[in-house]
Amino acid sequence: MSTAHAHWVVSQRGTLNIVGDGAYMVLSLPVSSLTGFDDDQDGLLSIQELRAHGASIESQIKRGVTLDSDQGRSVLEGILLNTAPPDSTPFAPSTHLVVLGRFAIPALATDLQLGLRLFGTNADEQTEHIAVTRGAQSQLMTLTPEHPQGAVLPSAWASLAQQVQQGAWHVLSGADHLLFLLVVLAAAWSLRQVVLVLTCFTAGHAVTLVACAVYGLDVPGAWVEPAIAATIVGMAVFDRWSAHRSLTGAVAVRLTLVFVCALIHGLGLAGALTDLGVGGMGKAMSLLGFNVGIELGQLVVAFSAALVMWLIRQLSGPVVLTQTTRLASYLSMAVGTFWFFQRVLGD
Length: 347
Hints:
Elements: E1 2-3, E2 13-19, E3 22-30, H1 47-64, E4 65-69, E5 72-74, E6 76-83, E7 96-104, E8 113-116, E9 128-134, E10 137-143, E11 149-151, H2 156-173, H3 175-185, H4 191-215, H5 221-245, H6 250-269, H7 280-316, H8 318-345
Parallel strand pairs: 1-6, 2-9
Antiparallel strand pairs: 2-3, 3-7, 4-5, 4-8, 6-7, 8-11, 9-10
Helix pairs in contact: 2-7, 3-5, 3-7, 3-8, 4-6, 4-7, 5-6, 5-8, 7-8
């Protein structure tokens, strides 16, 4: 193990450059993903600790950073390590470790899969972005504890399949997206109205996703996340207000609101677009797959919500169903309001 001066690498970013039979890696890892090095118990890695525990750290990296293919697993070789302190204090203990190394790629190897199992303990240390290049080909890969392995420079069809899975997962795992969908589905609409509201939601977030992926739209998450929470509150308030007023023509207004809110939710979903390849057709296929995955996730939510409402109606009657949807609206307002202030004020 040797040390390398590479503190300029951005935290939790990396590169994998494939040249001939080698894949050259530079990676920034949170030190909280490692064990057995923190002699002074300060949660940071110092140069002295790196020198004292370099062999153990290198062993953990070899187990936690892998490159697999149909020819088996390649081990990271020629590893160089260094702390990544701030530029203003170059010898201070660090929250991140910079790793340099090389994978030897076996002859005729195909189906390369990069794996990472070294994620930090903090919430903002759960994502690693890795830029992959081979000649004119390029890809930006995102690895998380839920998705710790990714295909290296996959084909367009493989990207499509991956993004279908990613899109569905982002809808089903996003509490705020789920709650918004449940709010708009809990109004006891007919099947035709449910189809219309899902179509409006699809159209809205699709517009935003295209704007982000193709035209480079970038809105800070500090604005997007509170705005998503506000859409939940606003939609629930509109439902209660329109029900109380017995408004006629509220369906058209509601569909318009759903579309506008979907534009905002699309900004949140666009964070997953860092997984897309930068090539023309690869990006188009990935964007298509991501949208298809979102729709599949929405259909699962819609079917589940419809089943629950049908069971309540059958077992308890329409009055109880009306009371249940009213209670759901008020609870959604409360949760959305809490999320809004939590996100504005910063946890």
